[in-house]
Design goal:
Blueprint (H helix, E strand, L loop, with lengths): L8 E5 L8 H11 L7 E5 L12 E4 L4 H10 L2 E5 L2 H7 L8 E3 L12 H17 L3 E2 L5 H9 L17 H11 L5
Parallel strand pairs: 1-2, 1-4, 2-3, 4-5, 5-6
Helix pairs in contact: 1-5
């Protein structure tokens, strides 16, 4: 078992879509069952039937926006799906850089790959600012393990510029880039 990290609370939010994100839930469960420290997990995830082996977890199918923001501000680490709403609303409230993971169509996590395209756009346009916090890979467990075991370093976190960009302008740029606008 690996022991590291000073993380007390991890908040995971998976949006409001009807599609489960079992790949992420299973990876979180696998990692947390193989570490000595046992942080509290608060999970907001609709429509899933995954049974966690990890026990220090509180689950909600949905939360009001004020509660999402409060949990995001309180959490030592945040893991979220790559939904536009989650990224734009919550990243500006994180104490430390969040881990943002794209849902994929081939795993039946969404109807298309718009989250994958969104993260690829951000990676391409803002690589310096976002580093390796945007996961588009199929196998996420290794990166998730690194993220969860890394010490929470909150005091020097400066939000990447894309977190505070004009969101309407950015959405238009992204939509053009991935071919959603004519």
């Amino acid at each position: 078992m690996v022991s590291q990290s000073n993380t007390n609370l991890i908040f995971i939010t998976l949006g409001t879509t009807r599609f489960p994100f079992t790949r992420l839930l299973k990876s979180v469960d696998n990692v947390l069952n193989n570490v000595k420290y046992k942080p509290k997990i608060v999970l907001q995830a609709p429509n899933h039937n995954y049974r966690f082996r990890y026990k220090n977890i509180k689950q909600y199918s949905s939360l009001p926006i004020k509660k999402l923001i409060k949990l995001t501000k309180k959490a030592d680490k945040v893991i979220m799906h790559a939904g536009y709403g989650s990224v734009f609303l919550l990243t500006e409230h994180c104490k430390a850089p969040p881990l943002i993971i794209a849902r994929k169509r081939k795993f039946k996590e969404h109807v298309n790959d718009h989250q994958y395209e969104f993260l690829n756009f951000l990676k391409k346009e803002k690589q310096k600012e976002v580093g390796n916090l945007l996961l588009t890979e199929d196998n996420i467990e290794k990166q998730l393990r690194i993220f969860l075991l890394r010490k929470a370093e909150n005091k020097n976190f400066k939000k990447p510029p894309f977190f505070s960009l004009n969101k309407d302008k950015l959405l238009i740029e992204i939509s053009k880039d991935i071919g959603l606008l004519i």
